[in-house]
Every structure is written in C-alpha cells, then in structure tokens.
Amino acid sequence: MSGSKSSDRAGAGLPSLSPDPMALTVHNGPAPVLPTTAQRPRGRITALLVLLACAAPVLLSYFTYYVWRPGSRNNYAELIQPTRTIPADLPLRDLNDRPVSPTSLKGQWLLIAVGGAACDERCEKHLYQQRQLREMTGRERGRIDRLWLVTDDVPIREPIARAMAEGEAPARILRVPPEDLSRWLAPEFGRTLDAHLYLVDPMGEWMMRAPAELEPKRFYKDLDRLLRASAFWDRPGRAE
Questions:
Q1: Each residue of 30-64: pLDDT tens digit?
Q2: How far apart are CA 224 and CA 181, in angstroms?
Q3: Alpha-carbon distance 195 to 211, whole Å?
Q4: Average pLDDT in the chain
Q5: How far apart, in Å, are the Cα atoms of 32 and each of 26, 28, 29, 35, 209?
Q6: Which key words are in the record (predicted)?
Q7: Domains recognised in the chain with CATH numbers
C-alpha cells in the first residue's frame, strides 16, 4: 500500500515522493545574487572615475593655463574670466544672406576681427595680422580658423574679399548686427568692438582679447601656450 511504501522509503533514508505531480517538472535554480549595500556605492565611484578620466585632458589644459602659472609668465593679451559662451541665438548670416548657426563655429580656435565692410586701415591691418598669427603657429595652424564678423550690410570691397579667400584655409566672413554681437564680445572700456582681435576656444568660449595696439609676436606667445596646453584634447579640423 502507498502508506507502507512511503514509510519504507523514509526508513531506508530515501527522500519521500511529493504528492504533487507538478513538483516532478520544476527544478529549483540558484537564488539571484543582488548587489549588497556596500557594492552599490562602489559602482557609482567607478562610473565617476571613468567620467573624470574622460574630462581630465580638458580640465588639465585649462588648469595649466589659468591656475598654475610660474611667476615668470606674464600674459600679453587679456584673459576673459569667466569666459563667455557664444549665444545660441546670435543672428549670423553669410554673404548670401543665409542664416548660419552659431554652433557651426565650434570645433576650432577662432581668431576674430570685427568691423564694417568698408574696412578702413585698422580693419585691413587686423585682417593681415589674423593671417600672420595663424601662419606663425606653423604645423598647429590647422587648429585655427580666421573669422571676420562684419557689422553692417555694406558690400565687401572686392580686393578685401579676394584677399580673404586666398591661401590653404580661406577666412570666413559672416555678418552680425553690432548690438547682438555685443552680447558676446566686448572691447576694453572706452574703445569700440573693432579695436581688437578676439580669441575663442573650440567650445565656443570667448576667452582672450588682444590689446588694441597689437604686437603680433607677443600675442603669438600667448596663442602658442594655449595651443600647447590644449593639445591633450583639441585636434585639427572642425567637428561636424
């Protein structure tokens, strides 16, 4: 009888049969191992370390230039602190009156000249100095773009337009109203926007203003230090 068979199996040290037939088809697997309270913070710390490792080159380059400065170093140009991000709604237009997105300027160092399309003697001098400074950086010149921001709707003089288009890397010419541009760039007190060259980093941050009476060789030293300090993360060629 079934009762005696169960008793015999128990007496023989064998496991008793379950009366539930479904128990014959179910196999108990190992219980899931959940992260302990101690393991969760460790995972967050690991993720944070990975994030810091990715950002370290950018942070280090700016720390090197802005914070750690040997006593013998003197900046010729004026550092802008805090830096100013290019406004997302800056109304830029090309020479065909088509709108240009401000984000399209990111990805390269920018040497910016500002002025009216008539381009007086000072304007011509700045455009020449732009080109001169870029060439002075030698093999690093591929990391620098020249930009002329024209603050009126007057036609560009043909000799100026032709000169800006020459060379392996033609300068870019965009139009922008001066009142809008002043939300981003600013001259020294008592001067006008067209009195300076402006330097913008590849992230679109205006971070340096050249003196009004520019000495290119002295400004080049500042530019060269910045290019060296940012070599960890900046590469030639505008990001698409």
A1: 555 555 555 556 667 776 666 666 555 555 555 55
A2: 27
A3: 8
A4: 81
A5: 17, 12, 9, 10, 61
A6: Membrane, Transmembrane, Transmembrane helix
A7: 81-229 (3.40.30.10)
Residues 39 and 92: their CA atoms lie apart, in Å, by 51
Euclidean distance between CA atoms 106 and 217, whole angstroms: 26
Structure tokens at 25: 């088809």
Helix (H) / strand (E) containing 199: strand 197-200
First-to-last CA distance in the chain?
84
The vertex-208 CA angle with 205 and 210, nearest 5°, equals: 145
Burial 21-47 (b: 16+ CB within 10 A, else e): eeeeeeeeeeeeeeeeeeeeeeeeeee
Distance CA 240, CA 222 (A): 28
